[in-house]
Design brief:
The protein is of the alpha+beta class. It has one domain: 4-Layer Sandwich (Phosphatase 2c, domain 1). The protein is built from 4 helices and 10 strands. Strands 1, 2, 3, 4, 5 and 8 form a 6-stranded antiparallel β-sheet that branches. It has a 4-stranded antiparallel β-sheet with strand order 7-6-9-10. The two termini are 20 Å apart.
């Protein structure tokens, strides 16, 4: 089971959209096998890693649920963004996969890093870059989302895991309303994760709450 965040957009009758952010505390995925490569590995003949596979499966199910047999959108059809985290302590690496503009940040040794480049017009310039600016601007012009087409291109990444790493998965209703410095300030405090999460949600609401705010915090500990 994999922690993740999704930010759905459901079509209403008449062409409008209902926005309803939701937390995905666990996303089912096939078990990792020794032959599974890292998501950024170079073995094209091996099966994809669990986070990648889970998103592909979710896309198939969302598309099927939201479209008729001929592929036309059905009433209530929906698309969603998603970001999924997979901390594999046995091999000391963290893997992630995502579609859309829900984001993954990491706090390590007092520094905040954005690990996902949005699938938007502004994020496209950083899709193949090793470093993504933590203050990457948001835009509602998504270039990818789950459930829109039968298949979807999933972006992936991985890095070595260190004890103390703190990961923030969030919808754009959080990352679009809070400055990176405020993220770092709140997540650097000595406090329970649920308290930190509630404080960030409140900051997003206090900043105007222009979109749904949903987040998940994951900390790597020793032992």
């Amino acid at each position: 089971m994999l922690p993740g965040i999704a930010d759905p957009q459901a079509r209403r009758e008449g062409g409008g959209r209902d926005h309803q952010a939701q937390r995905l505390p666990a996303l089912a995925a096939p078990p990792r096998r020794p032959t599974d490569p890292e998501p950024d590995g170079a073995d094209p003949g091996s099966e994809p890693a669990p986070a990648h596979s889970a998103i592909e499966l979710a896309n198939e199910r969302i598309f099927e649920a939201g479209h008729t047999g001929d592929g036309a959108p059905a009433q209530g059809a929906m698309g969603t963004t998603v970001v999924v985290l997979d901390c594999v302590l046995d091999d000391g690496r963290t893997y992630w996969a995502y579609v859309g503009d829900s984001r993954l940040y990491r706090v390590r040794d007092g520094d905040l890093a954005l690990l996902t480049a949005d699938h938007t017009l502004l994020g496209e310039a950083f899709w193949n870059q090793a470093k993504i600016p933590s203050d990457l601007p948001h835009t509602n012009r998504l270039m990818r989302a789950l459930g829109i087409t039968p298949t979807v291109e999933v972006s992936v990444g991985s890095d070595a895991t260190q004890p103390g790493d703190l990961f923030l998965l969030c919808s754009d209703g959080v990352s679009g309303m809070i400055k990176p410095s405020d993220f770092l300030d709140e997540l650097g405090r000595d406090q329970p994760l649920d308290q930190a999460g509630s404080a960030l949600i409140q900051k997003a609401l206090d900043a105007g709450g222009k979109d749904n705010a949903s987040l998940l915090l994951v900390r790597v500990t020793e032992g």
